[in-house]
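Input chain follows. Return structure tokens only.
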Amino acid sequence: MRRHCHHGAMSYDPLNSLTRKEGRASADRSTLDALLDEVSVGVLSTVLDGMPWSVPMLFARDGDNVILHGSTGAGALRQVTEGAPAAFTVYSLDGYVVAYNAFESSANYRSAVLRGTLVHLSGDSAVTGLERLTDRLFPGRTGEVVPSTRKELAATVCLALPIREGSWLYRGRVGGSEPPEYDDATVPAAPVWTGIVPLRLTAGEPQRDEWNHDDVPIPESVRAIQRHYSR
């Protein structure tokens, strides 16, 4: 049910509003872009044959679009390719917040949910989209390898989810826990440690395929991945 405000205000949208802890939301587009540029995996969701359907997917932000790709043989993707409304969720777990009790313990995170109808890219737009996606995940890789063949392009569907005002919701948490209210109900039986355990995704040393020639140097695109995940 939608709840309408008086005096001509915009209607309440439960999918774009927080019902609790509203301070964790942000309408700053640069905050959203920073998350989309850092995280590489999101979850695409829609309704398929009356049932919820979700799949994790690699993605890249290209300006005002989120670029996704998949196999043309994936039947579930055909649903969103043909215009079914969808949601795309990204999440970064940045740390555990260890409080004085289990109830107050939490996590620091950044998340976003984008909604809309995906655009099926074709022709040169699809080629450009796939190249942007590749270079976002493997910086500069398209310049190190041969271009995709027509057969490979024909087997791949490239989709763009537009990032439009009012179509996304960002929320996050930073900082530590609150101190306890010292009364009989909350004071710990003994002093306990409280604080934050930071978390981040890191890249290890590249592992060469067994069939790959030993004299082939590690390319700049791989080193760029290492640098990205060592910041």
